[in-house]
Amino acid sequence: MSAATNPLSKSGEPITWNFKLLAQNNLGGFGGMGEGIAVQLAKDGRRIAWLAHESAPKNFTAVDVTDPRNPTIVVQTDLPQAHMRSNSLDVSGDIMAVAYQTQKVGQQPAGLELFDISVPEKPRSISFFDCSGATSRGVHQLWFCDGEYVHMASGAPDFNPSNPLDDQFYRCIDVRNPSKPVEVGRWWIPGTSATDNVAPPPRHPLDKGYRAHNTNVYPQRPDRLYLCYIDGGMFVMDIKDKANPKVISHWTNSPPYTGFMHTAVPLFDRNLMLVTDESTENAGKDWPKLIWMLDMRDETHPVSISTCPLPPVDAYKDRGGRFGAHNIHENVELPTAWKSDQIVLGTFFNGGLRAYDISNPYQPKETGCFLPPAPNGSPVGAIQLNDVFVDERGIVYTQDRFSGGLYTLEMDF
């Protein structure tokens, strides 16, 4: 890559340590990216990265990353309405699941769409599972890696939250017949539905809502759901009977922290779990937002044992936008995904992409950082890395929330 096209050669305060930048693609000027990255091995041998956008006008973009030094757009699609977003997607085989969330309740379309992506240039809609309703904004996040079930954070036309901020809960959708998705299970925190006979949970000072976010289910333990519930903390759920999910354990750091629990990733062979918060406020107003390490030897009693270190908040809070944890590589059990229970990679908005050696779970150590300068067109004047995925070749994909699009990297550790 020439110096003229290398984003690390531009003005700003870039940091790169133990990562090597291979390429950047601003995706045709629509480089505001969400928190969905999935890699498909197409029938013709190409490797296709499917990317979710943060907001309208684009729905999803497919990029040929067979050569990670030359990522090339294959197809880019538009959303049907400006008042919606498709912030989350997943791929299993040649089927892609895409989440649709609207800006306000009652708007359409809001729900889950399944696509046949066997010909990447021509994604074909298979079905649409409608989640719209008077109190629903549809689907914010989904998880789909076994080709059989979509686990998602969603509203529903028959769900009336006790507080408007609590409008999305856990839903399990059977997609074994992808042309006819069917709900087979659901769960919410007692008190968050207006029909519950228990009191609503107490509100947090920043009050981001008691609603579902990541809904991770791994083929190694298909009877377990690792559910983060924003201000409600993290739940380990027994879903052997999908129609009747049951709580095994609950862990939270808030209060005294500021809520918005985002992702839980179990490290099965080590009886550990990684849990992330999400920073949702600019200028460090919700600091600290961290990656937490839990001891899971007894899954009924999670114990926090450490956090991944970050630089002082004062060094980043005024750089523009958010600073703090968000997404981590989730060790998805797919042939296209890298797996590690010794290294964790996470995105930290203006703190860039960071890697940690967790071989000693009591003392995680930073082992790499990729912090590019603000991409052209950034409204906050800083990088805002939003998501990360690592494929089985060790190629790292990370994307900017506003304008930078896709970055591909190699790990040097």
Topology diagram in text:
Blueprint: E1 15-17, E2 19-25, E3 33-41, E4 47-53, E5 58-64, E6 72-78, E7 84-85, E8 89-92, E9 95-102, E10 111-116, E11 124-130, E12 139-143, E13 149-154, E14 169-174, E15 182-187, E16 215-216, E17 224-228, E18 234-238, E19 246-251, E20 261-267, E21 272-277, E22 291-295, E23 303-307, E24 343-347, E25 353-357, E26 365-371, E27 385-390, E28 395-400, E29 406-411
Antiparallel strand pairs: 1-26, 2-29, 3-4, 4-5, 5-6, 7-9, 8-9, 9-10, 10-11, 12-13, 13-14, 14-15, 16-17, 17-18, 18-19, 20-21, 21-22, 22-23, 24-25, 25-26, 27-28, 28-29
Radius of gyration: 20 Å
Order of helices and strands: EEEEEEEEEEEEEEEEEEEEEEEEEEEEE
Largest sheet: 5 strands, antiparallel
Q: What's the total number of strands?
A: 29
Query: What oligomeric arrangement do these chains adopt?
Result: single chain
Which percent bin holds the helix content? under 10%
Structural class: mainly beta
Give the overall shape: globular
Helical stretch count? 0
Residue runs with pLDDT of under 50 for 5 or more positions: 1-12
- Beta-strand fraction estimate: 35-45%
Average pLDDT figure: 96
Distance between the termini: 22 Å
Keywords:
413 residues, 29 strands, disordered N terminus
Offer a quick outline of the entry.
The chain has strands spanning 15-17, 19-25, 33-41, 47-53, 58-64, 72-78, 84-85, 89-92, 95-102, 111-116, 124-130, 139-143, 149-154, 169-174, 182-187, 215-216, 224-228, 234-238, 246-251, 261-267, 272-277, 291-295, 303-307, 343-347, 353-357, 365-371, 385-390, 395-400, 406-411. The protein is built from no helices and 29 strands. It starts with 14 loop residues before the first strand and ends with a strand.
